[in-house]
Amino acid sequence: MEQEAPAGWEFFDSVDFPTDHIDDPMGRPRVRHVVTAVVVGHEGAAWLPRLSEALWALNPRPDRLIAVDTGSTDETAELLAAMPGAEPVVSVSARTGFGVAVARGLEAVGFAPIPSAVGPYGDDGHMPVVEWLWLLHDDCAPAPKALEQLLLQATITPAVGVWGPKLRLWPRDRELLEVGVTTSLGGRRDTGIETGELDQGQHDQPRNVLAVSSAGMLVRRDVWEALHGFDPRLPMFRDDIDFGWRASRAGFQVGVAPDAVIYHAQAAATGERALAGTRRHAYQLDRAHAYYTVLANAPGKLLPLLILRFLLGTILRSIWFVIGKTPSGAVDEWTALLGTLLAGGWTQARKNRRSLDRVPYDDIKGLFSRSVHALRHNLEETTSTISERIREAWADEPEEQVVTTARRAKSTARVAADKPRWRRQLIRRPFLVAWVVLALGAFIAARSLIGGGVLRSNVLLPAHESLASLWHAASAAPPGVTPPAWLAQFWAFSTVMFGPTGAVNILLLGAVPLAGLSAWVLLRAFVVDRVARAWGASAYGLAVFTNGAISQGRIGTCVAAIVLPLLGAAVHTIARRRRVVVQGSWRAAWFAGICQAVLFAFTPALGLLVSITLVFGGVLRLGWRRQGRQLVFSVVLGLLLVLPWTVQLVLHPARLGQEAGGPPTASVGPGDSLAHLLTGTPVGAPAPWWFAVPLILVALIALLRESRQRYELLGWFAALAGLAGTLIASRLGGGSGPLMFLMTAGWIVAVAVAWDSVGKSTEIIVQGVLGIVLVTTIVTAGFWLVRGADGPLWRGPAQDLPAYLASSQAPPQNASILVVRKDPGNAMRYSLVKDGGPRMGALEAAPTAVQSKPITDVLSTLGGGGSGEEGRQLAGLAIDYVYLPAPVDQNLQSTLDSLPGLTRASAADGDASWLVDRSKIKGETPLHDQTHTLWRILGIIAWIIALIFCLPTVRRTVAVPHGTHARRDR
C-alpha cells in the first residue's frame, strides 16, 4: 500500500513539475536509468518534512530510497521512515561520517534491482540499463524536475559519470550557492558565485567541472565502485571535492546540470546544528580536510611548494585572527595544519590512489581555481568583513526616542527627481560639499608654504630627515632623561605618511579638513539635521585656524583637534549604549584609552583635563557600573601607554604646559587680555578675537531653550573646563593654546545641537540667529583663504647654518658644532648641533645640567675673557666648530680670535665661525645617548594589544558559498 502524501506538499509551483519522458533531443536510443537514492540524516527533524514533500513531488522518483540515521536523538528516524517508498531505516552511530553512512546503507539494503522485463544491462537486446546512486542530505529539497534533468543530461552525455545539480538557498530562494565547485592548490573552495548572487540563468550551461556537491550528487554505479566511494577520512567538508578530483584522475568526467535545482540549508557549515562524527570546530575541520584533499591528490613534484604555501597562509591567517581578537581561530589554523601533516593519513592515501592516475595533471589543470582568484576572493572577503564588523562594533542605540524616523525624514533634503544624480547626491550630503571646500581651501591657504625645505616656526623644530633618525630620537636620550612619548606615536604615523616631513605637512596643512572629518564622526552620533552637522564639522575645522595652531606651527594642538572628537565618539558609545544584557562597550573603552594616550603625549595639559573629567564623570554620573568602570579604565590605559613619560610629567609638572614639537606656547591670563581669554583666542592667533563673539552669543541664547539641553550643557561644560584650565595654566606659566581650543569646540557643539533641535523653523528670530552663525562662519573661511596659513610658520632649510657647516655634519667628518648666542644685555645661550640637529623632540630630551656642565664651564670662562686653555678644552669635548650667528657679540668674538687652537673660518654676513684644532687631542663628547630599548619594546607590545582590543572581532568561517551570514562558526 502506497503511503499518503503529506499535507502541504504542493509547496512547489506547478511550473516545476517534470514531463513524463526523458528523451534525448539528438534522437539517440532511450536508456533505462535505475536510480538508488540514499538519504543520510542526523538531528534533521527541522528539515526532513520539507525533504519528504519534495520527494513526493518528484517525477520520476528513485527506484529505491535508502534512509540512514546517524544516531539522532530527535524525530529524525521516524521522519526518515515516513518518506515515500523508503526502505527500513538503517541506524549507525553518531560518529559516522557522510560517506561511511552511505556505504553502510548500501551494504545493508543494496542497489535497486533491475526489472526482469528489461534484461540485465541490455544483453538480451532490450533497452540498455544504467544504474545510478543519488546522494541526498537531510537538509536539502530537490525541485520536482531535479532528478529528471539529471538523468536527461546523463542520457545526452553518457561519458560523464558524475552529475551535480544547481544549488540554491534553502528553503526556496533564488540566491545561488553552487553550480559546480573547484579548489585552488592552496585549499580554497571556489564556486565562482559571488556573495548574494541571484539565479538569473547566467550559469545554466552544462559543463565539465572538477567536483559537485554531495547534496544531490548523481554517481554512476561503476564509478562509485571503482573509486570505493567517499574517503572515510573525510566525514564531512571537502569529501565532494576529493571524490570529484579522484574521478577526474581516473578518467571519469564530472559534469553539472544547471536545470536540476536543489535547495540546500547547509546546516552543519552554518552552525545550525552540531557536527556529527567529530568534536572539532567546523572551521578547523574544514581547513584540515582542505589540506588533506590537496596533499592526497596533488602531483608529487608540487608537494614541497604546497607545504610552504600552507605554512605561509597559516601564519598570515593566524596573525589576522590574533588581530581580530579570535585566538581560537589561530589555534584552529595550526591544529588543522600540523594535525594533517603529522597524522600521515595523506601519505597512505597517495599510495592507495596511484592506481587511479590515468589522466595527467596537466590535462585537468584547467578545472582548478587559479591562485590569483583565491587572492582576489581573500581580499574581497577581508575588506567586507572589516567593514561589516566595524559597522556592528560601533553601531549605537538611538540617542533618544524623539529622534524618530519622521524627524530623520524631515532632515533629509528633498530634491526633484529630474535633476542629475550627482546634483541630488550633493544636495543630500551637505557635509561632503563642505568637506571638499575645506580640502580645497586648505590647499589654497597653504599656497605660500608649498615648496622645498621643511616647515618651521619659533615653536616647531624641523622634522627628522628619515624614519630611522626619528626612531632613534624616540628611543634614545641622555642618561636620566626620558624621550618624549609623542615621538614614538609620530614615528608610527610617519611610516604611512611619506616620512616625517610628509607627516608634518599633512598634520599642519591638512589640519582643517582632517579636524572637520573627525568632528563629523562625533556629531553624527547625536545631531540628526544634516545641515547642522555639516556646519558643526566645518566650524570645528576652521577653529584650528582661528586658534592659531596652524600659523604658529603648534603640531600638538593640531593633533589634539583631530583626536578630541574621536575620543568623544568613543565616550558617547560607552555612556549611551544601554542594552539588556551588555552595557557599555569595552572596544570603545580601549579606543578611548588610545585617544587619551595621544592627548597625554602631544598636549599633556589637555590630556590631564580630559582624564580628570572622565574619571569624575564615570564615577559620579555613571556610578561604579560597567560604563563607569570602562571610562576609568580608558584613563588608566592612556596613562600606561605613554609610560615612562607619565612619570616625567609627575616629576616635572612644568612639562604639562608643553606641546609636541617645541617650547610651550604663549599663554594668556586675566592680567594679559580679558578679551582673548573670554573668547578662547590665544595671543598671536591669526584671527581677531571678536570673530568668536557671535558664536558665544548664539551658544548663550541656546541655553534659554527648554528642549534637548543635555548635549548643549555638555558643550558648555567643555567650554568652561577649557576656561578654567586656561586660567590655571596661565598662572603656572604653561601653554594654554590647546585648552583654549577646547573652549571653542564646546561652543560649536552647543550651537550644533541647538540648530539640530530647531530644525527648519520658520520663525524669523530663529532664522536670523542661524543666519548670523552662517555669515560668521563664511567670513571666517574667507579670512582663512585670504590670509593663508603662513605667519610664524614658514618653509625653509632645516638648519640656520652656513652651507659648509651643514655639510660638515655628514659622513665622513660628522662634525659637532657649538652654536653660541650672546645678545647684548642677555645671558649667553648655546646648543651643540650634531647629526643634523636639533630636530623635533630635542627640547623634551635635552641633557641635564650635570651632563652639560663641561661645556657650560668653558663658555663661562670665555664670557669672562678666557684663560687661553679654552681651545684645548673645546677639542677635548670633541667640538669641531664654534659658530656665532648674527648679531655677534664683539667682546666674545675678540676672545675667540685670540684663543690658540681656534682658526677663523668663513661665515655669512654678520656671522662668525672658528675651526677647532683636534689634530693633537682625541676628544670625547660629554653628551651620550642611552637607548631605552626595554621601554620601547614594552611600548610596542602594549600598543599592539590596545589596537587589537579596539578592533572588531574576526569570525571564523567555513568555506561554503552561502553568503557572509551563513558561514559563521558559532
Class derived from helix and strand content:
alpha+beta
Domain count, please report it: 3
Number of helices, where a helix is a run of at least 4 consecutive DSSP H or I residues: 36
What spatial form do the alpha-carbon principal axes imply?
Answer: elongated
Helix content: 40-55%
Low-confidence stretches: 7-21, 119-125, 396-417, 665-671, 960-970
| Cα Rg | 38 Å
In this structure, how is the largest beta sheet organized?
A: 10 strands, mixed
What is the strand content? 5-15%
Provide a short characterization of the protein structure.
The protein is of the alpha+beta class.
Secondary structure elements and their pairing?
Blueprint: E1 32-41, H1 48-57, E2 64-70, H2 76-81, E3 90-92, H3 98-109, E4 129-137, E5 140-142, H4 146-156, E6 160-169, E7 176-178, E8 182-183, E9 189-190, E10 207-208, E11 218-220, H5 221-227, H6 239-249, E12 253-264, H7 267-270, H8 282-297, H9 303-323, H10 327-343, H11 345-352, H12 361-364, H13 371-394, H14 405-411, H15 421-428, H16 430-445, E13 454-456, H17 467-475, E14 476-477, H18 485-494, H19 499-509, H20 511-523, H21 530-546, H22 555-576, H23 586-602, H24 604-621, H25 626-641, H26 645-651, H27 674-679, H28 693-702, H29 710-732, H30 737-758, H31 764-787, E15 794-796, H32 803-808, E16 817-821, E17 829-833, H33 853-863, H34 870-876, E18 881-884, H35 890-898, E19 902-905, E20 912-916, E21 930-931, H36 933-950
Helix pairs in contact: 6-8, 8-10, 8-11, 9-10, 16-20, 16-21, 16-31, 17-18, 18-19, 18-23, 20-21, 20-22, 21-30, 21-31, 22-23, 23-24, 23-25, 23-36, 24-25, 28-30, 29-30
